Amino acid sequence: MLTTTTNDLQPRNISNYVGVVSGTAIIGGEDREALLAALAAAADGIPVAYERLEREARLLAMDRMRDQAERAGANAIVGLKVRHEVLDATRQVTLVFAMGTAVKVPVW
User: Which range marks the domain in which residue 33 is found?
Assistant: First the structure.
């Protein structure tokens, strides 16, 4: 499913706005030990292990958002936004939230 951060799909025209869709994923919890080890081992910059966990969580949140859009009858998503919210700083649990507008466009 085509997913973009822009609000349109030029040169295609959006034929129908289906609605807002979203998906979430959590970093932390069972991954806490891996996160702590990665952060402790980092001399500077973002640890590779944390980047991997963040990327996996972001992709999972986006997949869940796309599934919701597909169930609603959309074939594309515009206006994608991805946010990270710390739920529990002590336990290092972070919510990854993907949101966009599900739309219908003419078949490519």
Answer: 2-104
CB 14 within 8 A of CB 104: yes
Q: How many domains does the chain have?
A: 1
State the amino acid at position 87 in one-letter form. Answer: L
Rounded distance, CA 80 to CA 3, Å? Answer: 7
Model pLDDT for residues 83-98, shown as the tens digit of each residue? 988 777 666 778 899 9
For residue range 25-74, list pLDDT tens digits in order.
988 765 556 655 655 655 556 666 667 778 888 999 999 999 999 999 99
Sheet with 2-3, side-by-side order of all strands = 2-3, 76-88, 93-104, 16-27
CATH of the domain at 18: 3.30.110.70
Angle between helices 48-71 and 32-41 (to 10 degrees): 140
Sign, Cα dihedral of 58, 59, 61, 66: positive
